[in-house]
Structure formats: structure tokens, C-alpha cells
Amino acid sequence: MKTFFKALGNVFKKPVTTKYPFEQTFIPDDYRGLIGFDENLCIWCRRCEMVCPPGAIVFSQDMEGKQTYHFNRAVCIYCGECVRACPKEGAIFQTAEPAPCALKAENINNGWNKLFDEALASREAYAAEKKRKAAEKAAADKAAAAKKEEENKTGN
Ligand code: SF4
Ligand code: SF4
């Protein structure tokens, strides 16, 4: 009998569901949505990449040293670790925007793994080139110093 009255009472209650997509679902204030990035505030320390559990962030680097941020919303688990680890407030932030469906290129099997590996390789290439240039400069400086010393000795 109790169940009957409860069921009858529910007939006159407002539904608890929303008619999505005609009605927007309720989003709480502390909802962890899409990750945003502001390259004007970023200091390119890559801490966000280091702490990201599933590897949803990666930075590539060109041969001039300029870094580019890449984020994969399909890989992200929206934990907020990147935001907490960032030393520069506002450089990376969590929005209240729900993540839309992933595109094919964002699928880990179709592009992201390749992009990730290429980004790491681009950094290695930049580091190797930087090291090569430093060694070249050191050798040139040493040769110039030796030449100067020789000139001093001969009085030229
Ligand atoms: S929210 Fe978590 S999973 Fe998403 S990018 Fe940041 S650290 Fe990675
Ligand atoms: S942790 Fe912050 S400052 Fe460092 S690279 Fe990431 S967004 Fe930029």
C-alpha cells in the first residue's frame, strides 16, 4: 500500500530528468570541464605535461626553441593536476565547458600517439642542436684564445 501511494505521488511530481538536448543539464560551480591554456601567461616549464596522468598534454619545440602546447580532450580525465602544478596562475585553467565528442584525429589510435612521439622527438632534436652549437662556439672561442695567445707571444 505504501509503495502504491509513493508511486501515485510520483505521478504528480516534476520529472528529475532533463530533456537533453532541448534543455541544458545542470552544471555545478566546481564542475571540472575542458582545460584552457593561455600562451601569453605560460612560462613553458612543462610541469603540466609532467604531472598529467594519462599524457593528455605535450609540448613540441621548433629548431629556434619555440614551444607549442598540444592538448587532447579525448585523453584527458579532467583531474585538474595540470592546473594545480602550474606555477603561473591563469596559464592553464579548468573551464566549466563540457568536453564535446572526440574527433577522429584526437583518438589515441589515430594521431595523438604519433603527435606525442613527434613532439618529444622535436624537443630532442632542438636539445641536440643546442648542444652542437654550444660545442661549436666553445671550440671557436678556444681557437680564438689560442690564436690571441700566439700573437701575444710573437708580438704581432
Ligand atoms: S586535467 Fe588531468 S588529465 Fe586533463 S590535462 Fe590536466 S592533468 Fe592531464
Ligand atoms: S605548467 Fe603552466 S607555465 Fe608551465 S608549461 Fe604548463 S601551462 Fe605553462
Could you write a compact summary of the structure shown?
This protein is mainly alpha-helical.
Structure commentary:
This protein has helices at 2-11, 47-51, 81-85, 108-154; strands at residues 35-37, 57-61, 67-71, 92-94. By secondary structure, the protein is mainly α. It has a two-stranded antiparallel ribbon with strand order 1-4. The chain has a two-stranded antiparallel ribbon with strand order 2-3. Bound molecules: iron/sulfur cluster (SF4) (2 copies). The site of one iron/sulfur cluster has 13 residues, from α2.
Topology:
Layout: H1 2-11, E1 35-37, H2 47-51, E2 57-61, E3 67-71, H3 81-85, E4 92-94, H4 108-154
Antiparallel strand pairs: 1-4, 2-3
The site of one iron/sulfur cluster has 14 residues, from helix 3.
User: How many H/I helical runs?
Assistant: 4
List low-pLDDT spans: none
Shape: rod-shaped
Examine the secondary-structure arrangement and name the CATH architecture of the domain at 26-126: 2-Layer Sandwich
> Got a strand count?
4
Q: In the CATH scheme, what's the topology name of the domain at 26-126?
A: Alpha-Beta Plaits
Relevant terms:
156 residues, mainly alpha, Alpha-Beta Plaits, two-stranded antiparallel ribbon, 4 helices, 4 strands, 43% helix, binds iron/sulfur cluster
